[in-house]
Design a protein that fits this description.
Elements: E1 19-23, E2 29-36, E3 39-45, E4 48-54, E5 62-68, E6 72-73, H1 77-84, E7 96-107, E8 110-119, E9 122-136, E10 145-155, E11 166-167, E12 170-171, E13 173-187
């Protein structure tokens, strides 16, 4: 943003500086959960990069993020290797997942980000319901920081991730995957 540092004065992000905010991977969590038999498997992606651009109004805000699919971590090495294989993410051919926003809107309890999510070279539109967690002008390293959280649910079948996992009346692996984002970002410019 050319005004680099102008504070927003109303709306959800009141008190936040307009500019480009770099996602801090050390203080960001991208987690997921999916049904497996009678419970849920939870995991995370440990390698995330991206930025949030904040302008004068939500129509000028944007989000871009990239996640290294090989960084998947469910706490079970054998399952993680299966997820990295051609059976699921096929990280040898499709090393990253990418999100690029197309629209950001405010609403009373937070914001909504609509954008294109690409997994395995298949792009689908997703909607993330988000919440602003606050701003710290002094930050950990002396730079301003913001906190954001968001949540969405995607169908893995829409991205060609894994085959149908229903055996009779038994769901082995669910199709719906809930993704939760806890993001801390610092003012880059």
């Amino acid at each position: 943003m050319s005004d680099n540092g102008r504070l927003l004065t109303d709306g959800v992000l009141t008190g936040v500086r307009a500019g480009t905010w770099r996602i801090d991977p050390m203080h960001t969590a991208v987690t997921f959960s999916v049904r497996h038999l009678m419970s849920k498997v939870r995991g995370r992606f440990n390698d995330v990069d991206g930025q949030v651009r904040i302008g004068e109004s939500p129509r000028t805000w944007s989000v871009e993020a990239s996640i290294a699919m090989a960084s998947v971590d469910t706490g079970t090495p054998m399952r993680d290797e299966d997820l990295r294989s051609a059976n699921f993410f096929d990280v040898a051919r499709f090393p990253s997942m990418r999100f690029v926003s197309t629209e950001v809107t405010e609403h009373t309890s937070g914001f909504r980000v609509v954008g294109d999510l690409t997994i395995r070279d298949i792009t689908q539109q997703v909607r993330i319901e988000g919440e602003f967690l606050g701003v710290d002008e002094s930050g950990l390293q002396g730079e301003p920081r913001i906190g954001l959280s968001g949540r969405t649910t995607v169908r893995r079948s829409a991205f060609g991730v894994g085959e149908s996992s229903v055996q009779g009346n038994k769901v082995v692996i669910g199709d719906a995957v809930t993704i939760e984002l806890d993001v801390e970002a610092f003012l880059e410019s």
